[in-house]
Each structure stands twice: as structure tokens, then as C-alpha cells.
Amino acid sequence: MEILKNCPVCGQTSFVLYAKCQDKLVSHDFFEVQKCNSCAFLFTNPRPSKDEIGPYYQSEEYFSHSTESKSLISKVYNKVRDINIRSKVNLVKNELKDVESILDYGCGVGLFLKQCKLDGLKVQGVEPSNEAREIASEYSISVIDPDELSTFLGQSFDAISLWHVLEHIHDLDEKFNELVNLLSPSGKMFIALPNPDSWDANHYGSDWAAFDVPRHLYHFTKPTFKKFIAKYGMKIVGIQPMKFDAFYVSLLSEENSIMKYPNAFLKGFISNLKAGSSMNYSSLIYILERQ
């Protein structure tokens, strides 16, 4: 385990315990989510190091890279995923009318890039999983390991996306800086993140599934994300809700409930309703451009 001595956003050194969460997926160990006393950023600390994190992803229930439907939850997940892929592609094309190229960091098996390619875009994937990269290659999609990202320096992409990926990256400053440098001057970034200020997060507390410790290293709110990206000369120009996530996260959070399906539907509905004008949905897509 490694212990962070400095806040990943503001660099200060004073933290307080925010929540103690259990890894219910793999190890069943408990991990602390700490809150920076200076900027209020939430992050998992201590955490497995980059070399230690691999086994925490080894679960049949962790199907973000899966293309096969097994359990009922994964069937629902895959169906909603297909709908979300189409909406994500449409979002990118609506935000960037002349978009020609896109880099997707943490592309998994490449389903999003597959659709982008079918829509005529030049695509590039980045993915740490060897297995996922092999599957993506079946779609004739170029996918590299994150450590190879520097080989693209000097090139630029109209769009760069990270769909529920930023919260997993150990070397956060290094990788985000590399990505910003790969963005064209008029390009935009699209970053999806869980929102710990959502109603479902407050309702479930330490049992909120989107804390997903220790795989989720960081837990961005709108204010702390804005502060983080400002360090790299980026600003938020739009926020879009991911309304399906409230139901999915609630379902995972209700895992031990005998009424988990009706409860999850009800809690997801309430969360989306409560989000309202505050835009504090369970998950958010941030649209970024240079300041």
C-alpha cells in the first residue's frame, strides 16, 4: 500500500476521514476515503500502488471490459452501455461539428471507438489491459498501453475522452498533462465521473457503490474537478447528466437487499429527480476546453 502525503488537487497535507468503505467486489477489505481540509477533495488513502492494484480488478462481476452477458445485472449494463455509446458519439459530434479524430483513454475493448470509426472518425485507443487491447484489435482499432502515450507527442486530436476512467489513474498529473498536450487548440475533452454530491451518494453513504474502493482512487465533485483541471489551463464549458447511472449504482448499492430491484429503481428515480437544476446527478460528463 502507498500513502499519499499531499492532496492530489491542491498539494496540502491535512486530511480528515470522510468515509470508510468496503471493497465488496474482490478483497472485502476496508479502505478510507479521506477529505482534504483545504480544498475538500476526496481520495482513497492509503491505496494499492500501481503494481499492486491488478488483483483488485480480478472479478467475474467486474464487467466493464466484458462483451458477454451473464448475470441479469450485466445484461442490463450491456444494454444501457449500447445506448450510452450512441449518445456519447452524438455528444462529441454535436459539440465539435468538424471533429475528425478522437483519442479514448481507457477504451476497454473498444466499443465506443468502434462506433466512432463507423461514423467516420479517425480513432486511437489507450488501454492498460492486455486482454482488452487484444479484443479491440479485432475491430481493427489501434490501441496502445498508457505508458506509450508519449509516443504521440507532437500529434493532436480534436477530441479526447475518458469515460469513467480518470478516477482510476495512479499517475494522475503526468497522464492528464500528456492528454492536454495532445488536444488540438480548438479541441474538447469529454470526461465522465461519478458524483459524490449526488442524492444517491448521500443516501447510501459509505455503501455507495460508486466509491468502488480501491479501484477508484479519486472522487471528484464539481468544485474539486474544476480546481483540478484549472492547473492545466482547462475549463468546464458544459456538463451533461448520465441518468442511467443512478439506477445502475443504486442497484449495486442494494446488492444485499431482498428488494434490491424495486429499491434500486426507486432510489435511482429519486436521485435523478433531486438532481434538478443543481445538476448533481449520480454521474456527470464534463466537457472541457482550453481557457
Summarize the structure in words.
There is one protein chain. The chain is α/β, with parallel strands linked by helices and 291 residues long. It has one domain: Vaccinia Virus protein VP39 (Rossmann fold, 3-Layer(aba) Sandwich), CATH 3.40.50.150. 32% of the residues lie in helices and 23% in strands. The protein has helices spanning 72-95, 111-118, 130-137, 172-182, 199-204, 222-230, 243-253, 260-275, and strands at residues 15-22, 30-36, 42-44, 101-105, 122-126, 143-144, 157-163, 183-194, 218-219, 234-241, 283-290. A seven-stranded mixed sheet has the order 6-5-4-7-8-11-10, sandwiched between helices. A four-stranded antiparallel sheet has the order 1-2-3-9, with no helix packed on it. Helix 4 links the parallel strand 7 (157-163) and strand 8. The model has no long low-confidence stretch (mean pLDDT 93).
Could you give the topology of this structure?
Blueprint (H helix, E strand, L loop, with lengths): L14 E8 L7 E7 L5 E3 L27 H24 L5 E5 L5 H8 L3 E5 L3 H8 L5 E2 L12 E7 L8 H11 E12 L4 H6 L13 E2 L2 H9 L3 E8 L1 H11 L6 H16 L7 E8 L1
Parallel strand pairs: 4-5, 4-7, 5-6, 7-8
Antiparallel strand pairs: 1-2, 2-3, 3-9, 8-11, 10-11
Key attributes of the depicted protein:
globular; Rossmann fold; 23% strand
Task: Please provide a brief summary of the model.
With 291 residues, the protein is an alpha/beta fold. It contains 8 helices and 11 strands. The termini are far apart.
